[in-house]
User: Fold this.
Amino acid sequence: MIQVKDLSFNYGSKKVLKNISMELKGGNIYGLLGENGVGKTTLLTLLCGLKKPLTGTIDTDGRNPFDRQPSLLAEQFYLPDEVSPVRYKAIDFGRENGALWPRFDFNKYLAILTEFEVDSIQRMDSMSAGQLKKTWIAFALACNARHYFMDEPTNGLDIPSKSQFRKAIMKYTCEDSAIVISTHQVRDLEEIIDPIIILDKEDVLLNASLETITRKLFFDYGNQIHADALYLEHTPSGAIQVYPNSTGEESKVNLEALFNAVHSHKDIIKALFA
Amino acid sequence: MDFHGEKPIYLQIADVFCENILSGSLKADERIPSVREYGADIGVNPNTVMRVYEKLTADGIIYNKRGIGYFVSADARDKILEAQRADFLEKEVPAIKRKMELLGLDAKIFN
Assistant:
């Protein structure tokens, strides 16, 4: 389990995160959502120990990630949005760098590359953005880490690769993994992220499972307009409205509508989920 | 899997299981994939698949053998038919009746 308490971080005089607290439990694939510039990437890099909190603490299974103990580093992997086009063939990159993760499985790496249709003898600095990203994802999953922090992993992936990614993330991670995926591409990942964390400037607006979200909020796809809707959007097939769930009826969560509802009614949402 | 409509995804997946049991492609006492296996097969969060299995277990359509996995109940087919018939009579028939009245049609159209 990862426990974040009162975490703050600044870049020089620019405040990014302030008093952020959250709990990330094993066995979950968290979707980290937030507007541009709220600090999603900063939070991910803090979680994996690449940055030092200004104040507050991060506790990963009893350890502080910034101490960068090898035993903890072996258990986590951070996949940045922009991955490095290293001057290696994919196969050699795995052989060389896999050694840094004690549980790295070379055969698994090759198997995932094949599944992703990446040519393992191609040099990574000559790959397309999508191929390069897939190579890094394959490497990440082959490291057999327990905690994964992925920043926009579907950026640059073509349509079939997105579906391969969704399947691979479940097939190749262990059951007690805590996986945190930051994304703007909610439609790419709608079916695999649960719980949902919505980060705001200096606040966590929401950290809830889909089950809780459907209990508290109703997503109405009908055309009858509700006066008390927290959010209303007109779509080609009708309206999407979000309002507090008063009947207990279950509906399908639409993450974009959820995000917009949360953003336009921060206080109501916080009170509802408190 | 492609999800559509307004039903929660876990209920849509449960419907697929029920269809597969009715069509005979899933048979009584057949083992179904584990939560994670099935999640990976269809690219859906294990929490969602877990809710599917919990619902199907509560409805008596599948059962859990501790440490071995989930299996299709012997009477799954009957249970699904019973539930779907009740649902049809309760929801769809009144809707069809209303529509027929609206369009000025009577029961002769079924002959």
Remarks:
- Chain B is about 55% helix and 10% strand.
- Chain B touches chain A at residues 3, 5-9, 11, 36, 39-48, 51 (CB under 8 Å).
- Strands of chain B lie at 31-32, 62-65, 69-72.
